[in-house]
Amino acid sequence: MPSRAGADSRASARGQLNTPVGAAATTTGGEDNGQNDGDGEDQPCQACGVFPARFQCSACQSVRYCSQECQASDWKIHYRECAEIVAAQKEDQTELQQGAGRPRSATNGAGETGVPGDRYSTDLEMTSRAAASPLRTGAAGEVLGDEGENIRATANRPRRRPREPVRRPRLTPEQRAAYEEAERIADMKFYMLQIYKIIKPVVICICLSILWVKISMAGSDYRPTQSSYTVYRESPNSTASQNFLGSLANAGIIIGQIVIVTIIIVILFKRGHIKVLIGFFMVVVAMLLGFMGYVLILNLIQVLRIPLDYLTMAFALWNFSVTGLISVFWKGPMWVQQMYLTVMSSLMAFSLTGLAEWTTWMLLALLVVWDLIAVLCPFGPLKILVESSRNQNQEVPALLYTVNAVWFMASPPDNILNRETLRSKESSDSEDVTLTNGSSSPGANFHGGHSRATGRDGGASISSSRNSGLDTSFSAHDGMSRTSSTMALVPNRNGDSPTGDRDTIELRERARSGDSGSSPRNLNHGEGSPLSGRASRSASGGQRQSRDPRRDSREVDDEEEHRETSDDDDDDDGGGLKLGLGDFVFYSVLVARAAMFDWVTTMCCMVAVLTGMNATIFLLAIYQKALPALPISICFGMLFYFATRFALVPFLAVLAQSQVFI
Amino acid sequence: MAKSIEKMTPDEILVASKKLFFGGFALLPMLWVYNILYIWPVRNRADLSPRVRHYVLLSGILSVVMFVVFSVWFGIFVNYRLNWGVPGDTLTVVLVKGV
């Protein structure tokens, strides 16, 4: 067991404390001792960067620390790497000299690199959880979930840049290549998991919309109707060109409204009128839940012949809407919030089924174009919004993402937004420089990176500055999460982000952390707040360190590690992918429109839309940048709709009549 | 929701629970149910203020009471609305066809 056990003193039973450099050889029988001795003078403390770093990790002997506190704080980051190094060492050793003295953890047998890491992470996981909630010992079962843990752990790796060779002298090129290959595979695995997670709410939303449509079509007088601002009404005897132009006008009006609202929101956001935006969204959500809920209830009670009195209905609607508002804008169990968002999307889709047929298709087609423009163009409003939300580190995007989608109609799978963001970050550090006012000690960075977990824990961390940034970004990404406190803390965050790199990392972290929004379930284990709190404390203690040229490369590595760790944390929250509610809504609109035709078309469209979504996510994995989620799905859906409607359904009708297969 | 309830401090939990409890009196028994759902994962936390349990318990009792009250009302309405004549029809949102 590697000895950064100090990571949490609770875990100290299973590891030894760090050993002074000289003593390492004796305790662990490391062959690499000589080498480490050689660079003992110029290798800074891994956690805080201070010289001299007189201690080293006794297991892998490749990192140094100035104190046990630093080791403890870094352990969360180092443990997996430590396991890898140890495993690599072990492989080397077995090649060179069979049965020679080797680090103890290596003697555990387990041949592959994955296994030690797995065990470590599980251990850590266990301790931190126990620390966070002493009474939640039911977590024993969770510990068994270490396989998932492992998947996640590996899945996270791809985010990292290629490792610094300096750090891993013992990795041969082949090993490294294999490692990178594994990273790629893990990346794909990660996206697959994301697809599983995101597909559930989408399917639920689509099914609900189908249900509403089917119910309302069964003889209800209260179907949603075409809104009054549409200029053209289709009639059965109008020609195709009339229909085309008329529906184009109708859809154009709606799209125009969407564009205008989007731009207004972006402007408001850029100007920092957050409260206005929140108020606006609250009104929108309340209207949606209240009014569309009312329309839906009218449909339901008429079709299902429920005698309902006004008292009960008003009471139920009032409760439904207010609870929805509270869960979306305040706090509450994540699953309730997700449920509300899904229902809201289906209600929105239901209200849009009032549009005439041609108008619906025209609207969807225009939306595809708008989505492409808004997300991919350099000055697309959504892109600007995402970027400014990143720059200002405001939480409203979260809000925008929840509701946004309803109005923007097209938010891309949002994980990616962040990714894209960070990509641009990587390319231009200048932005960060503008954000930075002073405090350019690298330690501050460190501090930020290290205390990430604390940030997520939210509470009483000493290092609130960077944390809060992280927290914000987390919540911003979270789709449904928003705190009031984060906003207050935003300025701090701007204060200490000297290097773009660091931010990149954090953004990645946040990209990872995202998505609970759309993920159906959200496992929030109590990640040990004491542990991470301690980590951040010690890390911030290290700010005094001086800058060293060698540190740069070191920092890169650290970043990666941070990312890794935090990814680890974050994946518990359901992963990094996020789909805007707008996508939910318009997928549902398409399928609901198909449901108004017949079941064969409905099912074809549903499969097509989901396939398109998967394709988008796949592209996402390849391009790693923000992508609009509507185009592929909607194009597939429309293609399948018309193919089914005009080819498959008539064909099936003929088959049924002539009874070919009977 | 910035953080999950597991990561909130006891004070925050207390405040949230209190707000939800008193909010429930605005004819919002759903908030009481919501309160229970919200607090449930941390109900056994050692550092939890006893007042939170108090609120949650009261929320549960009151929401059950409200549920019973409305069920009774709805039962009465469904069974007697035809006997009430015009007032009964006025109360009905959508007149049920054929009954």
β-strand amount of chain A: under 5%
- Report the average pLDDT across residues of chain A: 62
In the sheet with the most strands of chain A, the strands line up as: 1-2-3
Structural class of chain B: mainly alpha
In total, the number of strands of chain A is 3
Instruction: Give the uncertain stretches of chain B in residue-range form.
Output: none
Family (chain A): Belongs to the peptidase A22A family.
Pfam families (chain A): Presenilin, zf-MYND
Subcellular location (chain A): Endoplasmic reticulum membrane; Golgi apparatus membrane
Biased composition (Acidic residues) (chain A): 555-574
Comma- or semicolon-separated keywords:
heterodimer, A: 662 residues, mainly alpha, three-stranded antiparallel β-sheet, 26 helices, 3 strands, 67% helix, disordered N terminus, B: 99 residues, 4 helices, metal-binding (chain A), membrane (chain A), transmembrane (chain A)
Summarize the structure.
The complex is a heterodimer of chains A (662) and B (99). Chain A has 662 residues and is mainly α.
Write the SSE topology:
The complex is a heterodimer of chains A (662) and B (99).
Chain A: E1 19-20, H1 21-28, H2 33-38, E2 55-56, E3 64-65, H3 68-96, H4 114-132, H5 140-143, H6 146-156, H7 173-217, H8 240-271, H9 274-303, H10 310-329, H11 334-352, H12 357-376, H13 381-392, H14 396-408, H15 414-427, H16 430-435, H17 442-450, H18 452-457, H19 464-477, H20 484-495, H21 500-513, H22 529-541, H23 551-571, H24 581-595, H25 599-623, H26 630-658
Antiparallel strand pairs in A: 1-2, 2-3
Helix pairs in contact in A: 3-4, 3-22, 3-23, 4-6, 6-7, 6-23, 7-11, 7-24, 7-25, 8-12, 8-13, 8-14, 9-10, 9-11, 9-14, 11-24, 12-24, 12-26, 14-24, 15-21, 17-19, 17-22, 19-20, 19-21, 21-23, 24-25, 24-26, 25-26
Chain B: H1 10-23, H2 29-39, H3 50-84, H4 86-91
Helix pairs in contact in B: 1-2, 1-3, 2-3
